[in-house]
Design brief:
about 90 residues, three-stranded antiparallel sheet, alpha+beta, single chain
Length: about 90
């Protein structure tokens, strides 16, 4: 099967991104899932998004989700570090 990584752009993909750990750790007795609503908030409407951006990705093997990752870009911290470096 062909493996691919795709950006999360739809509600269906976002749900798959949030639910992936539940499938991955379904037989792990010590796994404590995070609340779906808390994860969705963090990825969509959290105040973090006012000053930063986030892009989630899903890894597929055929039609099955086999992994996930997210890229975060914090505009405030980058600006702060840039200013701090300029004032040394």
């Amino acid at each position: 099967m062909m493996k691919k990584i795709v950006p999360v752009n739809s509600n269906k993909e976002l749900t798959a991104f949030i639910d992936f750990p539940h499938d991955l750790y379904e037989n792990e007795p010590n796994y404590v899932p995070e609340l779906f609503i808390a994860q969705k908030d963090l990825l969509t409407t959290h105040p973090f998004h006012k000053h930063s951006s986030l892009q989630a990705f899903l890894a597929y093997d055929g039609d099955k989700v086999v992994g996930r990752i997210a890229k975060r870009k914090g505009r405030r911290s980058k600006t702060y570090r840039t200013c701090k470096l300029l004032h040394k």
